[in-house]
Specification:
Blueprint: E1 17-22, E2 27-32, E3 41-44, H1 46-50, E4 59-62
Parallel strand pairs: 2-4
Antiparallel strand pairs: 1-2, 1-3
Length: 75
């Protein structure tokens, strides 16, 4: 698997979230790193995902990653 880096200029940190825009609804969605690179998504490091600023009047929707289920030891 390729390492994906933050889309912000001059940031070389590893990506941990994906941002997408919904222009029709003036909304930004930030969620867990997508499983594949999407042409209309932007990968962000944890710092840039947490400090994201959007235009006035826009909403930010944050999606948490699904909870991890602990692995069961073999029976």
């Amino acid at each position: 698997m390729d390492v994906r880096i933050c889309s912000k200029v001059a940031c070389g940190a590893g990506a941990s979230a994906t941002l997408t825009y919904d222009y029709a609804d003036s909304m930004v969605v930030v969620g867990p790193l997508s499983g594949r690179v999407e042409p209309h998504g932007y990968d962000l490091c944890a710092r840039h995902a947490a400090t994201l600023r959007v235009p006035q009047g826009w909403r930010v929707i944050r999606r948490d990653p699904p909870p991890r289920t602990p692995e069961r030891p073999p029976s």
